[in-house]
């Protein structure tokens, strides 16, 4: 298996943490069967890395991760750990290839969460990295709350991490407060000051996790941390499907992931977590490739690219139409003609009124079968 990210590698790595950070979403708890199913699907789709849990959390978690390792999936598995030797020792027992070691980077967390100082953080970081190098083949240093850290201290951490031979450093926008311009201009300084590949881990508290992730790539970051459907703590994380598709179509950045599998994987995680996917959720939502407006329907029938920046089939979806408030007479006539139904103008207008009443009552567009039901009752 490939060791990791080369300094000059052009492809952006997608590092999925659905089975760790995603499981921190309120109410989410995967069984082993569910973890295996999700891990297999992501590995087969071509994900670059899977963060699969926190062994120090419990003996049952350690056992589940060990079972995942025993599957010998064609992808690197890593675990999340505090900068505590006992956490790392629990990870070593699972047999994972790599570990992520998380340290607080902001004075807010160093002083007010751990009641420590910067010197202690650097010392603890060094001890844990040196210990991990004896046991695993890949080390990610995670900088928690890096978005609120002092830039000079971040550079000091990166310099020390480079000396210690860390394979990748994760910059975490833990509270989701960053915005894309700040990400781009600030993080360029970090990229230019280190040879270590950098990963961006964005939270979605202000709805900017995907945009911030793209800005990080534009700034020179080599990896993006994602979760399926964006599930995670609080408002969640950068969504795998959004980041992967935006990298491919907005930034023209190659990704190894098979985009046609995004929808099925999204539905799988939705089922496993019992969290319904919002209808308008980008890429995997029920309505995102459905047109209701007559103007849009006419446009996509002439050329799908009139209202789509990429083909639905490229992400495992299909274009569809529905009938709603803005569908208009032309859309109804098109449906009737397709079914071989000929009606006079007065009847068509009557059907339109009934459709409008029903869509207003149901607060949603109507499916084709529902419209045909109205036609049948009217005629």
TrEMBL record:
One of its GO terms (biological process) is carboxylic acid metabolic process. Transmembrane segments: none annotated. One of its GO terms (molecular function) is acyltransferase activity, acyl groups converted into alkyl on transfer. InterPro entries: AIPM/Hcit_synth_CS, Aldolase_TIM, LeuA/HCS_post-cat, NifV/FrbC, PYR_CT. Keywords: Transferase. Residues 12-263 form the Pyruvate carboxyltransferase domain. Pfam families: HCS_D2, HMGL-like. Coiled coil: none annotated. Belongs to the alpha-IPM synthase/homocitrate synthase family. This is Isopropylmalate/homocitrate/citramalate synthase.
């Amino acid at each position: 298996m490939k060791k990791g990210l080369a300094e000059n590698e052009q492809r952006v790595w997608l590092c999925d943490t659905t089975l760790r950070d995603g499981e921190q979403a309120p109410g989410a708890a995967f069984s082993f069967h569910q973890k295996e199913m999700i891990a297999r699907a992501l590995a087969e789709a071509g994900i670059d890395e899977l963060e699969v849990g926190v062994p120090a959390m419990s003996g049952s978690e350690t056992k589940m991760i060990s079972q995942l390792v025993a599957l010998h999936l064609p992808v690197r598995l890593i675990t999340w750990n505090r900068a505590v030797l006992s956490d790392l020792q629990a990870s070593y027992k699972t047999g994972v290839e790599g570990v992520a070691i998380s340290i607080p980077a902001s004075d807010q967390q160093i002083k007010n969460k751990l009641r420590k100082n910067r010197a202690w953080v650097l010392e603890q970081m060094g001890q844990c990295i040196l210990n991990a190098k004896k046991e695993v083949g890949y080390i990610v240093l995670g900088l928690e709350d890096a978005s609120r850290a002092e830039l000079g201290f971040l550079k000091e951490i990166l310099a020390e991490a480079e000396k210690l031979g860390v394979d990748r450093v994760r910059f975490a926008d833990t509270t989701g407060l960053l915005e894309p311009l700040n990400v781009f201009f600030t993080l360029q300084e970090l990229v230019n000051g280190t040879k270590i590949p950098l990963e961006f881990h964005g939270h979605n508290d202000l709805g900017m996790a995907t945009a911030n992730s793209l800005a990080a790539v534009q700034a020179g970051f080599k990896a993006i941390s994602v979760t399926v459907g964006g599930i995670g703590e609080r408002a969640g994380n950068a969504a795998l499907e959004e980041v992967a598709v935006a990298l491919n179509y907005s930034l023209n950045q190659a990704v190894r992931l098979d985009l046609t599998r995004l929808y099925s994987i999204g539905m799988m995680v939705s089922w496993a977590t019992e969290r319904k996917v919002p209808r308008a959720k980008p890429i995997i939502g029920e309505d995102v490739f459905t047109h209701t407006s007559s103007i849009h329907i006419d446009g996509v029938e002439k050329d799908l690219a009139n209202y789509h920046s990429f083909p639905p089939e490229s992400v495992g979806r299909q274009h569809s139409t529905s009938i709603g408030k803005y569908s208009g007479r032309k859309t109804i006539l098109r449906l009737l003609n397709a079914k071989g139904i000929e009606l006079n103008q007065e009847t068509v207008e009557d059907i339109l009124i009934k459709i409008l009443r029903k869509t207003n009552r149901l607060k949603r567009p109507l499916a084709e079968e529902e419209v045909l039901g109205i036609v049948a009752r009217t005629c």
